[in-house]
Structure prediction request, 360 residues.
Amino acid sequence: MLVAPAFLLAQDNQSKGKISGVMFGDFYYNVARDTSFAGASAPSKTAIGGPKDVNGFQFRRIYFTYDYDFSEKFTTRFRLEADQTALSGTKILPVVKDAYLKWNHAIGSSDFIFGIQPTTAFDISEGAWGYRSLEKTIIDLRGAIPSRDFGVALKGKIDDDGTWNYWAMIANSDGNSPNSSKQHRFSLNLLTKPAKSIQIYVNGDYKTQANINDPASTTTPKATVSNNVLTLSGFAGYKDAGLSLGLEAFNQSTQNGYLDALTTPASLTSLSALGVTVFGTFELQPDLALIARYDYYDPNTNSNAKGDARNYIIAGASWMPEKNVSIIPNLQLETYEAPTGGTAPSASVNARVTLYYVFL
Prediction:
């Protein structure tokens, strides 16, 4: 259990601070797995992990957030996150999710942000998806870009009415971990809202990485080649009258990221990953909604690397017995591409009842 320090509560009583939290977890059952899914034989970056028939209760995320307003000009956020992937022995440990200072309207209508903060890639699409309690958005889920990074950002309107907006960021490229190299991440998001119910954006993210050895080099030491990563993505969303629809796609290209062993001699080529997601929610009544999502993901689109593409489906229904409490029965299904000359692994299936709640 995370407890607010006394000084935070004191600040909150002065009406300049706000404490909030989000928790979501499930009762889950691993209904189906391919019998070959063990250790290294399981597909990389599989959305549905764990062996068949495992079941139980879990917290997948716990957020504890403190927002404080110094003035109209300066605000700050500190957020802790805990889940079952951050363990020490048998304990769930919190980590710093957000820790940033925002200077509102630092340059015209643009805000300046310093610290550990959201990256530009999918913060908007995650809000449109609206069911982080069920799953991350595809770029986050497949590890293309981290949800947080440590750096500086400018974010604001391009025109007076906010039809066009931008979000630019320079960061360490280490996520919310301490800086460990001289490499950096450069990203830019351009968002348009042509109508109240529609938003569309394109995003570019360029991550510099250290050069790698060229295996085809005959020199001593071996020659090195670039290994930088460019991720381009786009999103279109519609929300009105109880209906929400979204489409997001990304392509990630890693320079010299794939060793093609089928060429003679074996040579490095760009590694290209492709992801597409479409989702929708429909509100049957104010406290009841239907949810559906489909993802396609191929971590390597090279024709010599068949067998790693997969399809991912989520379907469920959300019931809100209380304003900030949701109970969401849902089903996850992931299917896999057949390798060249082989048989596709059997589908992975999970059944869950997810509980999501917010406290303010």
Q: What stands out?
A: The helical segments are 6-13, 123-129, 138-141. The chain has three helices and 18 strands. Residues 261 and 267 are 7 Å apart (CA to CA). The radius of gyration is 22 Å.
